[in-house]
Amino acid sequence: LIVDDSNVVAQALKIILSAEPDMDVIGRAHNGREAVSMTANLKPDLITMDIEMPELDGVDATRQIMIETPTPIIIVSSHVNDKERNISFHGLEAGALTVLEKPVDMFSSGFERQRKQLVRTARAMAEVKLVRRRGLLPARKPTPRSLKPKTPRSESISRQIVGIALSTGGPQALQTILAGLPKNFPAPICIVQHISEGFVSGMVKWLTPISNLPLEIAED
User: Fold this and answer.
1) 171-180 and 82-94 helices cross at what angle (nearest 10)?
2) Spatial distance between the Cα atoms of 3 and 85, rounded to a whole number of angstroms
3) What's the mean pLDDT in 178-189?
4) Rounded-to-integer distance, Cα 68 and Cα 210, Å
5) How far is Cα 73 from Cα 56, in angstroms, rounded to an integer?
6) Under 8 Å CB-to-CB from 119, ≥6 apart: which residues?
7) What integer best gives the mean pLDDT of the chain?
8) Which of 37, 99, 134, 215 has a CA positioned 20 to 30 A from the CA of residue 107?
9) Rounded to two decimals, what is the model's pTM?
10) Mind listing the pLDDT tens digit for each residue in 87-126?
């Protein structure tokens, strides 16, 4: 099910997905309210969800779908729109699995990469099994516990690091992990998250308020 108020974007997504032999586009919703209704009636395997739409936006539509008819949802956002790109991560809080850039400019140098990423992600996310969410409120932030090292801290211990690698659909798990870590976590953490190009800075802004540790994008 494609959810987007733009005819151009909806048609582009339909062309890309319908070209795959194992995919069928069974409907298109023009806004979030239509998306909720069509999801309940059509029971799609996957939804591509726009963010800024009339009547009901993509975040609220995602939240309602996850309560009433849990369905894998991919947020498809405008890369050039910083506001929408940052808001997209609230869709993950509402239950969406990942966020991608809209592949609408077929003449751009990056279109083929975007097309492949959309198809690959759609195929993988359609297999994710979901559970019904209980209510509209976001999940409570875990209360971090203070860590007490069992052995005296030495130079060798202080130089250890923790590595976390997450595939597509991992930001929700990453949010839970970071929210549960205490301020005195005794090692730096290096995170690799598979996510669409251009969304890393938005992900950091989204995770910063819930993390007890400072977050920065890695630099050389």
Assistant:
1) 80
2) 17
3) 92
4) 27
5) 16
6) 16, 17, 20, 23
7) 84
8) 99
9) 0.76
10) 778 888 888 988 888 876 777 777 888 888 899 989 988 8
